[in-house]
Automatic annotation (TrEMBL):
It is found in: Cell membrane. This is ABC transporter related protein. It comes from the Bacteria. It comes from Pseudofrankia inefficax (strain DSM 45817 / CECT 9037 / DDB 130130 / EuI1c). Gene3D superfamilies: P-loop containing nucleotide triphosphate hydrolases. It is a peripheral membrane protein. PROSITE patterns: ABC_TRANSPORTER_1 (PS00211), ABC_TRANSPORTER_2 (PS50893). Keywords: Amino-acid transport, ATP-binding, Cell membrane, Membrane, Nucleotide-binding, Transport. Residues 12-246 form the ABC transporter domain. Belongs to the ABC transporter superfamily. GO terms for cellular component: plasma membrane.
Length: 252
């Protein structure tokens, strides 16, 4: 869909978003769009508001001011059913959140069958297709604790994809992984980006951000301090706080 000027309608549009915990403002005046096929990458230190922003986008946190539109529909309207919105958004957090008592196949098919009411055979076929794609076709009947950390995180991403989401949210998905397992997860996300799945990604992997981002947002103390292309923000930051943050990363 596009407007009369030919500009694509954003998959996600955020305007004036504000979030408070008690008297503390944790997000203030957040504005950004995600266009079809785009990846918006959030960077910033611990406590900068990245995870809270992602939780607001999925309505896991109540927004105190501003609005969020998904495919042109305001989802922060109190009359909107949050569960309906969440069915259209795939989310992967730092922890895998896999069901330990369910096999790999059952983990992937549970939501499509129970939540989306897909026929069991259709859901299983789709799950097998996705699992084959990420190299887990031989693990269908295995339980998550028999997988490596990288395999578990790839499984968590596939589970988020199984229902065909309009938008994917990824929150520091490599932070719990051993360094040698990070690459296989980031490769999968890069493939999804090239295939045109819109996403909002919080990451501390700057090389990865450089590779997949259409726009980088640097958050500090709950505000977007700097935004632009990866080249602008990561290679030539203008703001002192962005420069300091990136300098700390390269010093480690």
């Amino acid at each position: 869909m596009a407007d009369l000027a030919g500009t694509p309608t954003p998959v996600l549009s955020v305007r004036g978003l504000r979030k408070m915990f008690g008297d503390t403002v944790v997000l203030r005046d957040i504005d950004f769009d995600v266009l079809p096929g785009q990846a918006v990458v959030l960077i910033g230190g611990s406590g900068s508001g990245k995870s809270t922003l992602l939780r607001c986008l999925n309505l896991l946190e109540t927004v105190d001011d501003g609005d969020i539109h998904l495919d042109g529909r305001e989802i922060t309207d109190p009359r909107v059913h949050a569960d309906e919105v969440r069915r259209r958004i795939g989310v992967v957090f730092q922890a895998y959140n896999l069901f330990p008592h369910m096999t790999v196949l059952r983990n992937v098919t549970l939501a499509p069958i129970r939540v989306h009411r897909r026929p069991r055979a259709e859901a299983r076929d789709r799950a097998r297709e996705l699992l084959t794609r990420i190299g887990l076709a031989d693990k269908l009947d295995v339980y998550p604790d028999r997988l490596s950390g990288g395999q578990q995180q790839r499984l968590a991403i596939v589970r988020a994809l199984a229902a065909g989401p309009a938008l994917l949210l990824l929150d520091e998905i490599t932070s719990a992984l051993d360094p040698e397992l990070v690459g296989e997860v980031l490769t999968l996300v890069g493939t999804l980006k090239r295939e045109g799945l819109p996403m909002v990604v919080a990451t501390h992997e700057m090389a990865f951000a450089h590779e997949i981002a259409d726009e980088v947002l640097f958050l500090d103390a709950g505000s977007i301090v700097e935004r632009g292309t990866p080249s602008q923000v990561l290679d030539n930051p203008r703001e002192a706080r962005t420069q300091q943050f990136l300098a700390r990363l390269t010093a480690h």
